[in-house]
Amino acid sequence: MKVKMLSRNPDNYVRETKLDLQRVPRNYDPTLHPFEVPREYVRALNATKLERVFAKPFLASLDGHRDGVNCLAKHPKSLATVLSGACDGEQWKMDAPAYGEEEEPLHTILGKTVYTGIDHHWKEAVFATCGQQVDIWDEQRTSPICSMTWGFDSISSVKFNPIETFLLGSCASDRNIVLYDMRQSTPLKKVILDMRTNTICWNPMEAFIFTAANEDYNLYTFDMCALDTPVMVHMDHVSAVLDVDYSPTGKEFVSASFDKSIRIFPVDKSRSREVYHTK
Amino acid sequence: MSANRAAESLLALSQHEELVDLPEDYPLSASEDEGDSDGERKHQKLLETISSLGGKNRRKLAERSEASLKVSEFNVSSEGSGEKLVLADLLEPVKTSSSLATVKKQLNRVKSKKTVELPLNKEEVERIHREVAFNKTSQVLSKWDPIVLKNRQAEQLVFPMEKEQPAFAPIEHVLSGWKARTPLEQEIFNLLHKNKQPVTDPLLTPVEKASLRAMSLEEAKMRRAELQRARALQSYYEARARREKKIKSKKYHRVMKKAKAKEALKEFEQLQKINPTAALEELEKIEKARMLERMSLKHQNSGKWAKSKAIMAKYDREARQAMQEQLAKNKELTQKLQVASESEEEEGGTEVEELLVPDAMHEAQMNADGPNPWMLRSCTSDAQEAEIQEDPEQLPEPLAHNVSESEGDERLVAEEEILLKEFEEKRSLRKRSELNQDAESVGSQETKDSISREVLFELRTLSQKLKENHQSRKQKASSVGTVPQVQREVPAPEEEEEALLLQRPERVQTLEELEELEKEGCLQNKELPRPVLEGHRLKKNPNNQTDSPKKKKKEQMIDLQNLLTTKSPSVKSLAVPTTIEELEGEAERDQKQMIKEAFAGDDVIRDFLKEKREAVEASKPQDVDLTLPGWGEWGGVGLRPSAKKRRRFLIKAPEGPPRKDKNLPNVIINEKRNIYAAAHQVRVLPYPFTHHRQFERTIQTPIGSTWNTQRAFQKLTTPKIVTKAGHIIKPIKAENVGYRSSSRSDLSVLQRNPKRLSAHHKKQLKKNSID
């Protein structure tokens, strides 16, 4: 005779260890869980609100300077180190979030012209300055090993490409963005925009993409190989954009503007995802 | 006149060449005032000055001068200065002379060579340089396209992308910077030092090093081959031993053992001849073994097994044999070793051994069918026949006896015994039948009878068991358990039995059925012998056709019963739901009643209808009333424009399209665009979707854990980017993506041609300094 019995597989309800979550049998029948769209909407809204409520974007302020802080750089190999330079000629090294200490220069170079920008090579002991021309310096020498010009306007900033490290991008005061090749020691291409570009930043994950912070309140993302039109125009700032920097993942960048706000843009979106501002 | 003409020409000139500054303009005007002679000279002077100003005019002036005057041998006239002087013209007169042919050839060659083009403008050159450099660079960059595309389309990106490989350092380096601190570590280090184990450079111990030095390569190879061979041989031997050990045949083992003993003896003899001392030692060993054996009770008849065998020995031939064997062994082991030549002694020993076997065993042996039936039959063939007849007759008696006292635990034991006996019986029967095949002509009838009798008995026992089942009201399972046993017992009437067995589990349920079955069994008992005969041995016998219809009948009967049994549950299944339905209906009614009571006050349906009417009214296009009260008639409080006027100035709105919910009484469809909802709607189809339906479907499927399994929920809500806290994400590198990273440095080009660069640089510097 066959005796019918209730039999359950212990695997379905017994935990393997005490640390495991209790298995809760659930019925996913959609008729038992109606109104999925409205419920999900409410959930999403609540989640977003709570995220906003509990978000703490401000981590710390780094004190020490007695004058306006004019430039800032993060250490490429140390997460907690930030370098800053102030208008009174002081240069500080900050160990975020602790206070920093003043740094003494190791080496001083006196040039003939004014230097308006500087950037270090990503791999080698080489750095680039800009002013009336783009100079490439060896760290050991007192004179530049190579100079490149195109036009006669003063260049406000220069940036090395982090992936193809022989590429440089600079922006001049005659509304130009000029790209240089360090290997061939020649300029490559020039883009003329409507207004002056303050600075550019290369995408660290996509070798040919860079974003320019423009005076016309917008940021322009360009593909280096097709400079005719920007890939994306990022707008939301209400004043000149002064600086831009990419996140290491290459999916977002942050921009600082004269409207006293910082915005975070996704690379492929024209509107910002986040805005931070002081009073 | 001439002066006037000259002045005119001058004027024209001055008009023609505005840029030419004329300082003598003033004197020119003065010359007109003075005399002619003086004017002539002055004019000449003027012409000269003018000629000195412009080269063109001067040549023309020269043209004007007389040719005869200027021709001289020292001077080449510039006549025909507009034409170019061609070398060939010069050489024309010397055509005839051959001495100048080489010169002419050279000249021709020079002429055929094209002149070097002017170098391009510096800006042009730079532009070309830039273009070439840009093309090159974009080619270099194009290798990133697939990677960028892949990363953009990836479902999930995990940063940092490159796997952080643990820094690999050889153990020597690690150990060199490490010191034993804890007592345990120190102890271990001490041990290692004592054994001269290498600590810092753990490659080889000194012993190992020495051995390495001692052995050459060929030697090592030979040794290795030897070792390999030895290993292979060992493995073969092991395999063989395993196989031999698995052989179950006792005879084989016995023979093997004997062979081994013989071998050992032979060896011993040989040893005696060759090396007497070693043989003596061997002898001593054997003696010692014998002593040990004598001391032990190993092969005496005192063990548990031996005792049990002794009991069985009376009835069981094998047991007896085993006992004999054991005794023989004992004898063999305890016997004093003699020289091989005295083998007669051993034979005597065996005789003695036979004498030692108890008498009872001998008797038993005499009684039972001997180990050699041929011998027996040859002696008394008649007696054997009698035995065959006796055997089956003998057996039922104890059976019946057993059955009669089938109560209590004893019964089980008895059953087992019966089974055993039956088994034995059958085996012997089969044997005998085989033996008797030649003598079949004589005893065929008898054997048939005996077999039929046997089957009958078996069936009886079967029915008996069934009866027992009925009495003891055992569970079905147990009955099923016994049935296979029965089946084992009765291999002959398999076909019938199977049919029975298959049907039984279902039917042995009630008392009545059991009784019925019993009857059936009785019926079968009468009929079975023939089918058995048919099935078992005499299949060819054609006179059993009468049996088949009976079988069919039985089957039919079974079918009927089956039908009956199958019907009953269906009836039941019909009956149950009706009652449940009734109950449910009642519950529903109750619930409806309750709902009615709870919502007695509000009429939802009417409210809804009212709401719908309002919605319809609101959606109707409104008429535009343009009447101005008090225009062309009296106005004021309580006065209304006349109906005529109102009719005239009322603009009727055109009737809109029919409402979508016109024919749906229970629905209100709002056709207005909801601006609140519009804020959450997309204007353009998002990127990966190609059709709006796809997008709608993905939007409508919920992603929460309420509607999805845990796995699906996790899959649907995986973050697009995962980063590890505290890890630096470096810019992507060519070697990490699988490309060959450019080996040359970015600076290599700069440093390879410093000359050009320095020149360039100097120029730059100069320029800078100028600025």
Automatic annotation (TrEMBL), chain A:
SUPFAM superfamilies: WD40 repeat-like. GO terms for biological process: maturation of SSU-rRNA from tricistronic rRNA transcript (SSU-rRNA, 5.8S rRNA, LSU-rRNA). This is DDB1 and CUL4 associated factor 13. InterPro entries: WD40/YVTN_repeat-like_dom_sf (IPR015943), WD40_repeat_dom_sf (IPR036322), WD40_rpt (IPR001680), WD_repeat_DCAF13/WDSOF1 (IPR051733). Keywords: WD repeat. Coiled coil: none annotated. One of its GO terms (cellular component) is small-subunit processome. It comes from the Eukaryota. WD repeats lie at residues 234-275. The keyword Transmembrane does not apply.
Automatic annotation (TrEMBL), chain B:
Belongs to the UTP14 family. Residues 21-50, 383-411, 429-449, 466-504, 518-556, 739-771 are annotated as: Disordered. The keyword Lipid metabolism does not apply. Residues 436-445, 739-751 have a biased composition (Polar residues). Residues 527-536 have a biased composition (Basic and acidic residues). Residues 384-394 have a biased composition (Acidic residues). InterPro entries: SSU_processome_Utp14 (IPR006709). The keyword Iron does not apply. Residues 753-771 have a biased composition (Basic residues). Keywords: Coiled coil, Nucleus, Phosphoprotein. It comes from Prolemur simus (Greater bamboo lemur). It is found in: Nucleus, Nucleolus. This is U3 small nucleolar RNA-associated protein 14 homolog A. GO terms for cellular component: small-subunit processome. Its main location: nucleus.
